[in-house]
Protein: ABC transporter domain-containing protein
Amino acid sequence: MSLEIHITKNLKNFRLHVNFSSRSDRIGILGASGSGKSMTLKCIAGIETPDEGMIRTPDHVFFDSAAKRNRKPQQRSVGYLFQNYALFPTMNAAQNIGSALKGKRAEKKKRVEELIERFRLSGLADRMPHELSGGQQQRVALARMLAAQPDVILLDEPFSALDVTLKDQMQREMQMLLEDFPGTVVLVSHSRDEIYRFSQEVLVLDQGEDLVCGRTRDIFERPVYREAARLTGCKNFSAVNRPDVRRDAHTYTIEAADWGILLHLRNPVPEEVSCIGYRAHDLIPVWGTRPDNSIRVAVAEQAHLPFEDKYYLLPEGDAAEKKPICWFVQ
Structure:
């Protein structure tokens, strides 16, 4: 399965411009609130119509402005899981699941029973949505969505309103329930942990523009752009200067200007690089003799949490002109 999205949509104070192509079955869209994540899903589902461009899978063209093609939502074979699950409040669990099915009554009844068993909803078929827990509602919504046998499933921030314990439990449940799904799953989230956990490839959006896309682990390792690095969890950034210093033929030197430190590197830094980022968990404390690529710091603030200590460090020198460095220790 694959998914191609090449669209532009202009709103009153916002412009969405996405160019993305993936052959993965599990795709993540990462971005801050207001970056265009949900609007992208709505364009895939047919709820919103782009101004121009194209959206397609190997089997279907959902939208093609040049060819004047725009499939109706019910013709796209797309399942959409909203943040609040959007269950029909006047239908019980079994009726909600069956609402997506067509065919003879006996066949529908049999399919609903299969889905109730598969999604561990036995004994809950007659309950109304308000009588179900959050996890049970999610399973009903997933069962209803899969009952229609879609080619593509869209998950719009499905865990955003949950507490930490329930979120982890429901993430594991959803992974297990979707394990056998043969189509494409697109998960939208502002949580880097959810994206890293679920997706094989990721698209990073910033203010309606696609910043970078590729294999999830590669993007987290080398996010390329500062905003992409920030969205994937990087806390420390410094502008880069290139001093006329070369220690030897095998070492390259740059200055992290915001921290007042020369960094001696084994590989050259491309000329277009204007900023470096360093993750808060990757810093290593050093006592005694000062080696290369280290800087003397003073602890400005610290926070002791149940499973992590956070330190905010001021580099040596004129502290007022230097940015604090975040160091997180698990």
